[in-house]
Structures are given as structure tokens and as C-alpha cells.
Automatic annotation (TrEMBL):
UniProt protein name: Cytosolic Fe-S cluster assembly factor CFD1
Pfam families in the record: ParA
CDD domains hit by this protein: Mrp_NBP35 (cd02037)
TM regions (residue ranges): none
A Gene Ontology cellular-component term: cytosol
Length: 306
């Protein structure tokens, strides 16, 4: 299996659609990569493959290698150029494989029956040449579908003991009381997948005028829910319009002068950079959500094997 050089596999799950599972996968991957790790993202959301868009590589094509596919590079390993800390590590590589790269037209609808989806998931797990990876994040469709069942069956049969670290469950404050989250957690328990933690997304709003974070919904629901289910809570993530601008328009996140973002005070220059250059991962370093995800990744790694 092409996963033999992958050190750890982490699934990203959500009970319902639109809670930000793909955006959490993207940010986990960028943060792990900013910590110097080599990372892969496998997008098995076959009916709505959004990872190519999130990573700004929509027009990329997958190259064929003998016996399989080469995942698309988002960035290769390189020295950290714009890191704010003195002990900055090189940025690790990031590669992605998604059905989105194989569709002729990004608006093509994928209307497949279960057996075809199962075959595609198996092929993704066996025929992608990842090379050496520290972490492979698998972005799954919402709910518990045919893709999930074939994913777990194939992983259980083929992954080395301990290679699948577990799952991160993404929810929103509104979805917390809904039975979808319960179903997702039960699915993990039944299939023997450890829950590494819950991320509560869209739990507040970062004001574009002053970068103040306001908790639009009551705070702490995610933490209470995690406690009820006896699973770790990894953190709350607010909505940041600067993150949307980064994904949608490739714009470096900017905040008002004087705001402290990722440990760096925004000066007039950093708040309004003259030249908006740099790769996605370099731009992400100045997003307020990076500080939050750095904490989430710290917790996550503490919950995976050493
Ligand atoms: N914390 C956030 N701040 C700003 N925008 C966000 C945040 N989380 C998600 N979004 C935006 O919300 C939209 C939906 O998020 P996303 O596609 O990640 O959800 P999903 O759960 O993966 O959806 P699907 O069920 O379609 O796979 C995207 O446009 C994304 O950019
Ligand atoms: S947080 Fe401050 S700047 Fe932002 S809308 Fe509210 S009052 Fe205005």
C-alpha cells in the first residue's frame, strides 16, 4: 500500500456539512507544515471535493507515475522566510490528492453509486505515491457515508498497527446539541477509531475593523460536549473574514495597526503590505487563526503517539 512511508494518519470528520471541516483540515495541514512536518492531504469527499480550491491549486493536474498518481505539491520544504520567532524551523512540505484534480470540469457533478465510491476510496489509499510523510490528513465527507465505511475497512485491513492515530471531529456551536455529532462519535467508537479531539469552529467572529473576537454564540458549548462524550477538546475557532479572503482571493491576512497577530504587533507596513507576495503557507502565518491552530495542533500532537 502507498501509505507505507506515512508515519501517522489522522481523519477529519464532521456530523454535518458546512461546519468548516475542509477549512480545519487546511489549517491543521498548514500549521503542521509551519512546524516543519511533511504533510499530505487526501480529500475523499467525492461529491464535493473542495481541497484543491482551499489550497489554491484548482488548475493543477495530477501526474501519473508507474502504478499510481503523484499528489499535487502545494509547497515543498523550504527555509522559513517570514517567521516571527527566532527558533523558526524550515517549513515542511505539503501535498494533496483529490478527485477534484481528476474531473474535467470543476463544476462536474459526481453522481456515483456506493460500489464506485468504494472503489475510488480504495484506489486513493493504494495508488497515491506519497513518499515519506510525517502526517496524512484525510478529509472525509460529512456524516457517515459509503466513503467512511470503505475508508475505515481499508485502513483497518492495510494500515500498520498504530499508523492510524485517530480522528478530529469538527462541529459548530449550533451543531453541538444535534445528534449528528453523537452519530460521528459513535461511528468512531464502533469502528475502533480513537477520537483525538473535538474542534468547535465558527465559535465567534473576528472584527475586520479592530481584530477583536466577539463570541456571537454562547461560549464553552464545545468543551461541555467533549466532557459529556469523554473526548478531548482541542479548541474553539472564530470566523475570521481575513481567512476567507486568503482562501478566496489569495490575499495576505491584514489587521488594523497595533493588533497583535501570531505574536507580532501589526505595524503600518505589516497591516498593509505593499507587495502581497508569498505562498499560501507564508501568508497564513500572519492570519489570526494560525495562533489558534498552533495551540490546537500542540494539543493534537500531545494526543497522538509520540
Ligand atoms: N473559522 C472560519 N473563518 C472564516 N471562514 C470559515 C471558517 N470556517 C469555515 N469557513 C468558511 O466557511 C465555508 C464552509 O467551510 P468548509 O467548506 O470548510 O465546510 P465543510 O464542513 O468542509 O463543508 P462540506 O460539508 O461542503 O465539506 C468556506 O467558505 C470556508 O472558507
Ligand atoms: S469590535 Fe469594535 S471595531 Fe469591531 S465592530 Fe465592534 S465596536 Fe466596531
Amino acid at each position: 500500500m502507498s501509505l507505507s512511508n506515512v508515519n501517522e494518519i489522522i481523519l477529519v470528520l464532521s456530523g454535518k456539512g458546512g461546519v468548516g471541516k475542509s477549512s480545519v483540515t487546511t489549517q491543521l495541514a498548514l500549521t503542521l507544515s509551519l512546524r516543519g512536518h511533511s504533510v499530505g492531504i487526501l480529500d475523499i469527499d467525492l461529491t464535493g471535493p473542495s481541497m484543491p480550491r482551499f489550497l489554491g491549486i484548482e488548475s493543477s493536474k495530477v501526474k501519473q507515475a508507474p502504478g499510481g498518481w503523484l499528489p499535487v505539491p502545494v509547497h515543498e520544504t523550504k527555509d522559513a522566510t517570514s517567521s516571527t520567532s527566532d527558533d523558526s524551523k524550515p517549513i515542511g512540505s505539503l501535498h494533496c490528492m483529490s478527485l477534484g484534480f481528476l474531473l474535467g470540469n470543476r463544476n462536474d457533478a459526481v453522481v456515483w453509486r456506493g460500489p464506485k465510491k468504494t472503489a475510488m476510496v480504495r484506489q486513493f489509499l493504494s495508488d497515491v505515491h506519497w513518499g515519506k510523510l510525517d502526517y496524512l490528513l484525510i478529509d472525509t465527507p460529512p456524516g457517515t457515508s459509503d466513503e467512511h465505511i470503505s475508508l475505515v475497512e481499508t485502513l483497518m485491513k492495510n494500515a500498520a498497527p498504530g499508523q492510524v492515530s485517530g480522528a478530529v471531529v469538527v462541529t459548530t456551536p449550533q451543531a453541538i446539541s444535534v445528534s449528528d455529532v453523537r452519530k460521528e462519535i459513535n461511528f468512531c467508537k464502533k469502528t475502533g477509531i480513537d477520537i483525538l479531539g473535538v474542534v468547535e469552529n465558527m465559535a465567534g467572529f473576528v472584527c475586520p475593523n479592530c481584530a477583536e473576537c466577539t463570541n456571537v454564540f454562547s461560549k464553552g458549548g464545545g468543551q461541555v460536549m467533549a466532557k459529556d462524550f469523554n473526548v478531548p477538546f482541542l479548541g474553539s475557532v472564530p470566523i475570521d473574514p481575513a481567512f476567507i479572503a486568503l482562501i478566496e482571493e489569495g490575499k495576505r491576512p491584514t489587521y488594523p495597526e497595533g493588533t497583535v497577530v501570531a505574536g507580532q504587533e501589526m505595524s503600518e507596513q505589516t497591516a498593509m503590505p505593499e507587495h502581497d507576495t508569498g505562498s499560501l503557507v507564508e501568508k497564513y502565518q500572519s492570519c489570526s487563526l494560525f495562533t489558534i491552530f498552533d495551540g490546537i495542533v500542540g494539543q493534537l500532537l500531545a494526543n497522538t503517539r509520540p
